[in-house]
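S.,

Sequence below, as promised.
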Amino acid sequence: MTSDRLRGIYNERIRDIRQAIRKLSRLIGTISLLRLGSAAVAIYFLVLGIRTENTLFYWAALLTGICFFWLVGLHNRRNSRRKILRELESLNETEMDCLEHRFSDLPNGAMYADRSHPWSHDLDIFGEGSLFQYMNRTATLKGSELLARFLTTEPEGPAEIRWRQEIHRDLSDRIDFRQDFTARARLIRENRDDLEELSRWLSAKTYISSNRWLIPLALGVSAISVTILILGITDSSYFNFYLPLLLFSWAMLAPFLARTNRYQSDISRKNALLEGYAALLKIIAEAEFGHPDLEHQQNLARAGQHEVKRLSKLLNLFDQRLNMLLGIVLNSLFLFDFIMLHLLERWKRQNRDQIMQWIELTALTDARISLAGFAFNHPGYVYPVLEGGNGAPQVENEAPAGKSGAQKREPGEPGGEPGALLVEQLGHPLIPAHRRVDNNLAIDGEKVVIITGANMAGKSTFLRSLGVNTVLAYAGCPVCAAKFRGRFTGLHSSMRTADSLKEEESYFLAEIKRLEQIVHRMEKGEPLMILLDEVLKGTNTTDKLLGSVGLIEKSLGYPILCFIATHDLSLGELEQSHPRQVINYCFESTISEMELHFDYTIRRGIARNMNASFLMRKMGIVD
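The prediction came back faster than expected:
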């Protein structure tokens, strides 16, 4: 699938959705007129019945009244559908914008930014113009948190990555499911405290549990009320018994009224939230999946949608006590508070352990939809092949996003060596394709890759491309490359260290602490990819060289693959003193007709051309 084909898909969907909205709007307008007309006719028949005392008019008023309420329900359902269609329209417009790399209006995940994280700050995972902002389509708060976790957590190993890839392959082409889920989730008006309040309600105990005698009392009062009503139809004198019953009911309710109000304040008005989650579970339950894990979660959703919907209805009914007139009647005749508390507590006992799992399921689906949507939007990307520590190759080979392949490893491609890596046409996913320069790199057993080059030549961008694509691989997404094979490792970087006035910490000390974290992790003996941009920038040239050489030589004793971008050409001499362990690559710049040119292409060897003095002369800073 090409980018033009993707644009065609989204344009076609936008066109169809807009047409459906226009048709639905005309229908809603017609229903509104019919609803108004039926209300007027019902009132007209009622007035005629009162004037003529003809029962036929009363029946006519009743039938047109029923028609009115049916039209009200129909109007509400069609209006809800129109809201979903408008969200679908907005979703497809967003996808069109993102295909053109216009995504600044999307949530950027700045709340998840953490300068101390092993890589997220260096690789621009969060914030304006970040990877999170580019791929984020989550519509639930917990889904957003899970997406951030996918992008900041190392998986346990290659098996987990393959498992994630299979799930995203299954979801990527299910565009109707993905967009229907997201559009419905966007209609949920969720506050950050909602789930916490729901969790607190689930763990709290109420007085109804320790005063079980209140339930038979409420049933008894209800039975008496119904009996009085039946007897009162034939003899109105029986209605006099309602007065002592009312006094008795409120005498029973009064000691518990404050506690009932507190109970309701903890859980009240969550019915709209729960209705939204029930609708999301319904979408999952009715979808078709091929992956076993998705099918298992589908079974959970089937059970959850009915129970969550039932809780929503119970809460909606419980909220009727807030209606002053209706609440007084219901409590006076049926001890409504006690009955509803009993029903809610019974639901809680039956589903306490499952409800948060159901909500977690919707959040996980929400996060996966963003990752699968990223795969769908980048059909030219490939799923990476990462091997385990024993060097056994993964069954699949590189395949375009959404497809699978099965080939043996080619001769000369990396095996299980600590530094084995092969990438072809590697680029940064946040750089538009027409401006991006992709690169090839083959590392076959070397542990340290020293990348030299002039300012602005592309060293840092290459390191970030490698890092961001590794993060995508961790999340089970395809990567911006034609081939990406290597060994599964952890990831740690030191590229954008900053000083801190708050912590009274200098730039140099902050970098030293960052390097200390990397060394501690390296010393644990776990395979690790390290990305370093200009080590020890905060010290003099001699000290910087000594420290850099010491760090490199120390790292050679561990299963690492370390990339070091530097201006210090003398580090390139380590390739001779440590053959097959250190390798040199570079980015070159050229000066032609008094203009500085870059090709942003990585190549073997040490950079020879520097540009600082040329730029200073050209700008008149020096003679």
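The first strand starts at residue 385 and ends at 387.

Coffee later?
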